[in-house]
Amino acid sequence: MQWWSPPLPVVLMAVVLVAAGCSSSAGTGAPGSGGDVQSTTGVAYESTGTGPMVKPTIPQTPSVPSDFGQLQCSPGAPLKTADPAPTKRSCTRVFHLTASAFEQKIANFPVQDVMVWGYNNSTPGPTLISYAGERVQIVLTDNLPVPTTVHPHGLHQPNTADGVAGISQPDPVMPGQTHTYPSFVPGHTGTFAYHSHTDGPVQELRGLDGAWIVLPRAEHSSVHVNDDYMMTLQQFNPEAVMSGMPVANKLVNGTLDVPFPGGTGDFPLSTVNGRTGDASGGPITIHKGDVVRIRIYNASQNSHSMHLHGHDEVLVAKNGHAVPPVRETTQDVAPGDFFTIDFKADNPGNWIFHCHFPHHTANAKESGYNGAPVGMTRIFHYAGSAPVPVQYFTYQGQSSMPAP
Ligand SMILES: [Cu+2]
Question: Could you tell me the CA-to-CA distances from 152 to 158, 195, 276 in Å, in that order?
Fold first, then answer.
């Protein structure tokens, strides 16, 4: 028996979406379920839907590497592969993460390279990808000057793998040390995260955060998408990060004193995948007729109203669980939220996907080439459409940033 009975309007909408080529959902318990194939651990190997079974599209994270880990199987030689582990062998997918401080070009102006903290020299850290039913494990090396931990967010890990300093992990990983967390089997497919759970106002907001996607091994053609993009929302305070000071660095009369820059109201550098729109290196090219998936993870401490121009956004999953598909134009994504939206690429051009808080769209007081928005933005470019002006992806239309 299904745990959720869709009301008639939702059933009708699901039928319309499937007919229109939009996906219904990934995960379990979706309306129109074709029935999951369950592993012995209760993990669905397939996403729900209808039609023939196909391989899921591998998600991409623009500007950020993907990490399929290392497959360690016994008996047999170790494998390193982006394919699912064989189901008839005992395998663990091991992810090696190193936390450290490094410079990353997160914006074109008013600053470019800033000292951030991240995993494997990237913030957000590499997008970890595993498959339904697989056993996973994190090995964390601390190259920071302070203790740290890593927390798998939403994955049904055992308490000893939860990585909360001083609570589930009484002794955090010390500088220079490596810690192997217990392995476990995530409880479901979907979009999740991993992040530091030590001194969060400093470590998370400096960038110790990343996405973790658990893919089904196969999915019905009705939920299949052509393109699948992970987008992690972050905000940085370059004054704090550049001076080497923590974002929250002192207590004043018992109140946490977070140095918000005057006039901006919050952290001034709003980014997607660790880069402002103009510093992202270029648009994301899509093709007319594609069904495009965007997985949004809000790793900042502000909400963001994510809006796509020119298309309907169909919300298909929230926080790792399928939801009845809903057509919207804007998603209010709270801190720690994961929203998955799909859209049908049926309107050629150059379309901006952005947070609708004007200070986040425009990177606080900064605007780009001819006033273009340069903050928490990405541009979808249809192949064959007029190119996005190259000046957008520069320092305010200049080929290089002027010397200070
Ligand atoms: Cu925002």
Answer: 10, 7, 26
Q: How far is 134 from 68, CA to CA, in rounded Å?
A: 12
Find the 305 Cα to ligand 1 centroid distance in Å: 6
| pLDDT over 80 (residue 285) | yes
Give the per-residue pLDDT at 24: 35
What pLDDT score does 293 carry?
A: 97
**pLDDT confidence bin for 18, thresholds 50/70/90:** very low
Distance CA 80, CA 201 (A): 35
How far is the centre of ligand 1, averaged over its atoms, from the C-alpha of 19 (Å)? 33
Could you write out the DSSP letters of every residue in 321-369?
A: EEEEEEEESEEEE-TT-EEEEEEE--S-SEEEEEESSHHHHTTTT---G
C-alpha of residue 361 to centroid of ligand 1, in Å: 7
* CATH class name, domain 66-224: mainly beta
Domain boundary assignment for the chain: 66-224, 228-393
Distance CA 236, CA 245 (A): 13
Of 331, 299, 336, 290, nearest to 314 (Cα)? 331
User: What pLDDT was estimated at residue 403?
Assistant: 65
Fold of domain 228-393: Immunoglobulin-like (2.60.40)
pLDDT digits (tens, 9 = 90+) for 236-248: 876 655 444 443 3
What distance in angstroms lies between residue 296's CA and the mean position of ligand 1's atoms? 12
Structure-token pair, residue 59: 């998600």
Distance 282 CA to ligand 1 centre (A): 21
Q: What is the pTM of this model?
A: 0.84
What residues pair up with 377 in beta bridges, in sequence order? 354
Could you read off the pLDDT of 293-309 as tens digits, one per residue?
999 999 998 999 999 99
Q: How far, in Å, from the CA of 364 to the mean position of ligand 1?
A: 10
Tokens standing for residue 31: 């309306």
Distance 375 CA to ligand 1 centre (A): 9
The rounded Å distance from CA 246 to ligand 1 centre is: 22
**CA 298 to ligand 1 center in whole angstroms:** 9
Cα of 89 from ligand 1 centre, angstroms: 45
